[in-house]
Amino acid sequence: MSDSRNDHDHGPTMPGRRSVLKAGVVLAAAPLVGGVASRVEAATKPVANGPFTARAYGNTSATGPLGPLQTKRRAVGPNDVLLDVLYCGICHSDIHQARNEWSSLPTVYPCVPGHEIIGRVQAVGSAVTKFKVGDVGGVGCMVDSCGTCENCLADREQNCLKGATFTYNSPDRATGENTLGGYSEKMVVSERFVIRIPPGADLAATAPLLCAGITTFSPMQHWKLSSRQRVGVIGLGGLGHMAVKLAAARKAEVTVFTTSPGKIADARRLGAQEAVLWTDTAGMKRLANHFDLLISTVPESYPMQPFMDLLALDGTFVNVGALNQLEGGLIGMSMAFGRKSLAGSVIGGIAETQEVIDYCAARGIKADVELIRPEQINQAYDRVVGKDVRYRFVIDLTTGKKA
Ligand SMILES: [Zn+2]
Ligand SMILES: [Zn+2]
Question: What is the pTM (predicted TM-score) of this model?
Answer without folding.
Answer: 0.86
